[in-house]
Amino acid sequence: MSTHPLSSDPAQNKNVSILSAGLLLRILAGGIAAAIILTAFGLLTSSGHGAAFLLQKIIVNLVSGLLYVAVMAPLAISLPLRWPARFGAIFVPLYVTGVLADLVEAYFYTTTLTPFKLVMALIFESIPFLLIALVIAWLLPPSSKARSRPGLRQRALLSWLWRIVLVGILYVPTYYLFATLVTPIEHIFYHDPSFVAQLHTQVPPASVTIILEAFRGVFFALAMLPVLAVMDGPSWPLLLYLTLIGVVIEAWVPLLGQANWPWAMRLGNMLELTGDALGRGIAITLLLALPATFKRRKETEAG
């Protein structure tokens, strides 16, 4: 994830411009394809609505599709893997961050999900993300520099396990911290009977929340392993990218579709989820990326 200044050679600069324009066109095409997938999937799962509602959904899905493809583009062009592995490395962050972690949390925070419905939702909601991941893997092939990426550094299995578990544990205070910070904004809505009835919300015991959020932290850490395998370089760009993935997939895109929520509720959720993503990104960078980065630099200097 390093940046390179433009060369003084006009021909080389022109080639860079052409490549950049080509990448932008591919992202645009992928975003449109993703919007078509999301719209078709939405039509299959929703009852009939008026033309105004359909137009609103198309616009939301177009923005969502562009965000999905744009945020996964740096990962896609950095993956030097064979096609099936590239598809899996793109699908996992999308699905775990956008579906798995949220549905597991919703099972405990709403009254609408039974174990059977949860399993069916996890399977059913995977379909559009499978298709979007296929589109991204096809439209955004690896760059020439991706072929020399070193991949994840070798660690003992026990080392990986305790680091990933610690990321999950550290996510618990992160979750509580930002939930507390936005309480003045969201508190009134979670105690509004009409809003609670609309969302079918419930609040689980603190003991359940602590265990649940620790597991979600582990899920998020596992989902970012493909990113860590290819995004070598300075830690700050990596941290920003990890945070951006969480913010876009877990916050921006889902909140786009909550047009019936009060703006203050959407703002509170945006701030909370942004803080969560940043906290996770810091923990993942410190525990899973930096030690490998330091070792990689040491090996490079020794070589």
Description:
- This protein has helices at residues 10-45, 51-76, 83-109, 115-124, 126-139, 157-181, 183-190, 193-199, 206-223, 225-230, 235-256, 263-302.
- The chain has 303 residues and is an all-alpha fold.
- The protein folds into two domains: 15-141, no CATH class; 152-303, no CATH class.
- α3 packs antiparallel against α4 and α11 (235-256) runs antiparallel to α12.
- The longest helix has 40 residues, at 263-302.
- Keywords: Membrane, Transmembrane, Transmembrane helix.
- The chain crosses the membrane at residues 23-46, 58-77, 89-110, 116-140, 160-185, 205-231, 238-257, 277-294.
Q: Portion of residues in helices?
A: over 70%
Instruction: Give Rg in angstroms.
Output: 21 Å
Regions with little confidence, pLDDT below 50 for 5+ residues: 1-8, 11-16, 296-303
Instruction: Indicate the structural class.
Output: mainly alpha
Q: What is the residue-mean pLDDT, rounded to a whole number?
A: 85
Number of domains: 2
Shape: globular
Distance between termini?
A: 22 Å
